[in-house]
Amino acid sequence: MKTKIVKIENENLLDKALIEAATILKDGGLVVFPTETVYGLGANALNSKAVQSIFEAKGRPQDNPLIIHVANKNIDFLVSEITSFAKKLMDKFWPGPLTLIMKKSDIVPNVTSAGLETVGIRMPSNLIARQLIESAGVPIAAPSANLSGKPSPTTLESCVEDLKGRVDFIIGGEMSKVGLESTIVDCTVDPPCVLRPGGITLEMLKTVDERVYIDSAILNNMNQNEKPRAPGMKYRHYAPNVPMKIISGDLDNIVEYINKMCQEYRNNSIKVGIIATEETKNSYSYGIIKSLGTRKDLNTVSYNLFNTLRSFNNEDVDLILGESFLEEGIGIAIMNRLKKAAGYDIIKV
Ligand code: AMP
Ligand code: MG
Fold first, then answer.
1. Candidates 64, 113, 147, 150: which one to mutate for ligand 1, based on the most atoms within 8 Å of Cβ?
2. What percent of the chain has pLDDT over 70?
3. Among 169, 203, 219, which residue terminates a domain?
4. 16: containing domain
5. Residue 228, in any domain of the structure
């Protein structure tokens, strides 16, 4: 398949590429587009055949449902019920990095919801994304625009690397501002439950209903026999091409432990990549060291996370060591992605 690639500068919503891409979406094609979380791989959410081709392009397991992206808050036609909690969340956090799980209407095809009676819906804040959806005139099902299992793409270049030749159109914009996938909240249960942590933190959600809690499977590795509340929870995700370990504990201990490991690796000619921070990057003297930014601003860390993970695929390393972060605020989402990238290989020091 020939893929057309257009970068839109300065969120120019009059760019004719947007109209061309919107027409492709309406007609059942696949379009990659920027959002504030990560880049999305979109298709008309109401067209089963188009949605099916998303799974094929990504190599995504069929039982992993897709999030429907909308351009405005008129979602009555997609759901059978909007609870008062969901309504409050929409008012407060849409547009933005928050996906709400609600009971679906009959119009949503089974392939989009992966056979579930519920559907995830999100209104992105990215203007190119919204203009594209608005012009297409249909809701857009869109998972992250990466090959299944790889780190999510936050730049045009990452999407091209994974999906060129597999989709009709790739629209580029700026690097995704949040850098992590949306927070997912299940609004069909009482009390409401966070199924995936993201840029909208638990503290922010608690301002709407203080009973909101995080599903325990997010903080710990899931037992293989457990049935996940969000199907995506059980899959290996975000994995770099080489094994990765997270070193967790007090920062001083982490640095000391990584240096000790590096000494052994050096003696055995094992090449190491280190995911560090501004505070620690000068404390290491072996390996390829990359900083995610300062620990004082975890939004920068989340912004840089996936791009840094991906960039190690172009480095000559045999394994990656990553520092842990405090699991509070957006740190919960950052650690969730790091743990998955490492396949839950965590060393406590
Ligand atoms: P992705 O689009 O790859 O970022 O992943 C979307 C994730 O949203 C999936 O992995 C699911 O876990 C979750 N999701 C989407 N729809 C539903 C739903 N109806 N119920 C529970 N989780 C959902
Ligand atoms: Mg994904």
1. 64
2. 96
3. 219
4. 4-219
5. no
Distance from residue 206's CA to the centre of ligand 1 (Å): 22
The verdict on residue 276 lying in a domain is yes
The one-letter code for the residue type at 167 is V
Q: Per the annotation, does 37 bind a ligand? A: yes
- 45 within 8 A of 38, measured Cβ to Cβ: no
> Ligand 1 centre from 107 Cα, in Å?
18
pTM: 0.95
CATH number at residue 258: 3.40.50.11030
Is residue 164 a part of any domain in this protein?
yes
Q: Which two tokens mark 153?
A: 């793409």
Give the pairing of strands 213-214 and 193-196: parallel
Number of domains composing the chain: 2
Q: Where are the beta strands (DSSP E) in the chain?
A: 4-7, 31-33, 40-44, 67-69, 98-103, 118-122, 140-141, 169-172, 183-186, 193-196, 213-214, 244-248, 272-276, 288-291, 319-323, 346-348
CA distance 262 to 109: 51
pLDDT tens-place string over residues 101-134: 999 999 999 999 999 999 999 999 999 999 999 9
